[in-house]
C-alpha cells in the first residue's frame, strides 16, 4: 500500500496552560485508505498522547468526530486524506462552539436547543392500548424519513452564518428535528412546537444560506426542512387572519 | 479542575470573506439594494403619472439619462442572478410528493420559470405591450 507523509496542523488549546489556541504541526505517515481520523489517531498513539478529541464509531454513524478540516466542518472519519488537496491539512475544533480542550468543543447550547423543540412524538389524544399500534403507510414514512437521518454531529451549526452571528438562533439540526416530528403522521404536537419553531429565534432567523445542507454528511438537507416550515408557518398566519384556523394563534 | 472554555470571536463585518460559499450568499443578499432602489424609482414613476403629463415627462427624461440606463442594466443582470439562484432552490422549499415518490426538483424549478414567463406576459399584455 502506498504511503505519503502528511503534515497535520492541529489547533491546540489546553485550558490549564494556554490563554488562547495555537497551531501545532505533526508529520504523519498516512496509508492511501486513511481518513483524517486515522491520522489523528496516529498522532495520539505515536506522537503526542496529550491531544484531545472525540470519536467513537469510525463509520459516520455516531456523529462524534466532526471538526473543521481545511476550514470546513466535516466528519473526520468520512474525510479521506487522498481526497484533500496536497500540502498541509488544517484541523480545528468545530467553529461556532466554545473550545473545551484541543478539538473538543462545548456542545451544551446545541443540546439545550434540541430539547427546546420537543423532539419526540406528542399525542393530544391517547389511543387505548387495545386498539393496537399507530399504523403508518410507506408514503407517510417517506414524507419525513430523510430528516430522521441526522446524527447530531453539529456540522450544520458550524457552517451556519446565522448561528455564528446570532447565538440565540435555534439552528438547523434542532429545527429539522422539529420538522421531522411535525411531518410524522403519528404526531399531534405541531402547535406545541410552534412557540419555539416559528419565533424570531426559530425559522425566521434563517437566511437560507444553505451552508447547513452543503456540509451535512448524512444528506439530511436541513435547509429544506426550515424553508418548508417557513411556508407552513406563513400559511398558518394567513389562515388565522382569514378566520380559517391554521394552527396556534 | 475548573473549566475555561475558549470562545472564538468572529467579525460581524468581514465574516463572509473567508469562504466562497458565504461570499456568494452575501452577494445574493445585497441584490436587495439594487432591487429596492429600482422599486423606489418605479413608485416615483407612478407618482409622477398621477401628477400629470408635465411631471411624467420629467420622469421619462430622467429615465433616459445614461446613468439611469446603466443602473437599469446592472439591476437587470442582478435581478436575473437573484431569480435564477432563487428558483434553483425552490424544490427544497416546496417538495411535491406523489404517492411514495417526490417529483424531481427540476420539474418544480421549471414550473417556477413557466409561471415567471406567464406572469410577465400577462403584465406586458395589460400594459398594452402586444398592441404594437
Would you give an account of this structure?
The complex is a heterodimer of chains A (249) and B (132). With 249 residues, chain A is of the alpha+beta class. Chain A has 2 domains: 3-105, Beta-grasp domain (Ubiquitin-like (UB roll), Roll); 108-241, Alpha-helical ferredoxin (Fumarate Reductase Iron-sulfur Protein, Chain B, domain 2). Chain A has 9 helices and 7 strands, in the order E-E-H-E-E-E-E-E-H-H-H-H-H-H-H-H. Chain A has helices at residues 36-47, 108-116, 138-145, 155-159, 161-165, 172-182, 190-197, 211-215, 222-241, and strands at 3-12, 22-31, 66-69, 72-75, 89-92, 99-101, 104-105. A 5-stranded mixed beta sheet of chain A has the order 2-1-5-3-4. Chain A has a two-stranded antiparallel ribbon with strand order 6-7. In chain A, a hairpin with a 2-residue loop joins strand 6 (99-101) and strand 7 (104-105). The mean pLDDT of chain A is 95. By secondary structure, chain B is mainly α. Chain B has 2 domains: 17-80, Fumarate reductase/succinate dehydrogenase, transmembrane subunit (3 helical TM bundles of succinate and fumarate reductases); 88-132. Chain B has helices at 20-51, 53-63, 66-87, 90-93, 105-126; strands at residues 97-98, 101-102. A two-stranded antiparallel sheet of chain B has the order 1-2. Chain B is flat and about 80 Å long. The termini of chain B are far apart. The mean pLDDT of chain B is 92. At the A-B interface, helix 3, helix 5, helix 8 and helix 9 of A face helix 1 and strand 2 of B.
SSE layout and pairings?
The complex is a heterodimer of chains A (249) and B (132).
Chain A: E1 3-12, E2 22-31, H1 36-47, E3 66-69, E4 72-75, E5 89-92, E6 99-101, E7 104-105, H2 108-116, H3 138-145, H4 155-159, H5 161-165, H6 172-182, H7 190-197, H8 211-215, H9 222-241
Parallel strand pairs in A: 1-5
Antiparallel strand pairs in A: 1-2, 3-4, 3-5, 6-7
Chain B: H1 20-51, H2 53-63, H3 66-87, H4 90-93, E1 97-98, E2 101-102, H5 105-126
Helix pairs in contact in B: 1-2, 1-3
Amino acid at each position: 500500500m502506498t504511503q505519503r507523509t502528511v503534515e497535520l496542523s492541529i489547533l491546540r488549546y489546553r485550558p490549564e496552560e494556554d490563554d488562547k489556541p495555537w497551531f501545532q504541526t505533526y508529520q504523519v505517515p498516512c496509508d492511501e485508505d486513511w481518513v483524517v481520523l486515522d491520522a489523528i489517531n496516529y498522532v495520539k498513539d505515536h506522537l503526542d498522547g496529550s491531544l484531545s478529541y472525540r470519536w467513537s464509531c469510525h463509520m459516520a454513524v455516531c456523529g462524534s468526530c466532526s471538526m473543521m478540516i481545511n476550514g470546513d466542518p466535516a466528519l473526520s472519519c468520512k474525510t479521506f486524506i487522498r481526497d484533500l488537496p496536497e500540502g498541509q491539512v488544517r484541523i480545528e475544533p468545530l467553529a461556532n462552539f466554545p473550545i473545551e480542550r484541543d478539538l473538543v468543543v462545548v456542545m451544551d447550547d446545541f443540546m439545550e436547543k434540541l430539547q427546546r423543540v420537543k423532539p419526540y412524538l406528542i399525542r393530544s389524544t391517547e389511543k387505548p392500548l387495545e386498539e393496537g399500534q399507530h399504523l403508518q403507510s410507506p408514503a407517510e414514512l417517506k414524507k419525513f424519513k430523510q430528516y430522521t437521518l441526522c446524527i447530531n454531529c453539529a456540522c450544520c451549526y458550524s457552517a451556519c452564518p446565522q448561528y455564528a452571528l446570532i447565538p440565540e438562533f435555534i439552528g438547523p439540526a434542532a429545527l429539522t428535528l422539529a420538522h421531522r416530528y411535525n411531518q410524522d403522521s403519528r404526531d399531534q404536537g405541531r402547535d406545541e412546537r410552534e412557540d419555539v419553531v416559528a419565533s424570531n429565534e426559530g425559522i425566521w432567523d434563517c437566511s437560507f444560506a444553505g451552508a447547513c445542507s452543503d456540509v451535512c454528511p448524512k444528506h439530511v438537507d436541513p435547509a429544506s426542512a426550515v424553508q418548508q416550515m417557513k411556508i407552513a408557518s406563513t400559511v398558518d398566519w394567513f389562515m388565522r387572519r382569514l378566520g380559517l384556523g391554521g394552527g396556534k394563534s | 479542575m475548573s473549566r475555561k472554555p475558549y470562545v472564538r470571536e468572529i467579525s460581524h463585518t468581514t465574516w463572509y470573506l473567508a469562504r466562497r460559499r458565504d461570499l456568494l450568499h452575501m452577494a445574493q443578499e445585497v441584490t436587495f439594494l439594487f432591487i429596492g432602489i429600482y422599486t423606489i424609482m418605479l413608485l416615483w414613476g407612478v407618482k409622477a403619472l398621477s401628477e400629470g403629463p408635465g411631471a411624467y415627462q420629467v420622469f421619462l427624461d430622467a429615465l433616459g439619462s445614461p446613468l439611469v440606463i446603466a443602473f437599469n442594466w446592472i439591476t437587470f443582470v442582478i435581478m436575473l442572478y437573484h431569480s435564477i439562484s432563487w428558483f434553483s432552490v425552490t424544490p427544497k422549499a416546496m417538495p411535491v410528493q406523489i404517492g411514495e415518490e417526490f417529483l424531481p426538483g427540476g420539474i418544480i424549478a421549471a414550473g417556477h420559470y413557466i409561471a415567471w414567463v406567464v406572469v410577465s406576459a400577462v403584465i406586458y399584455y395589460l400594459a398594452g405591450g402586444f398592441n404594437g
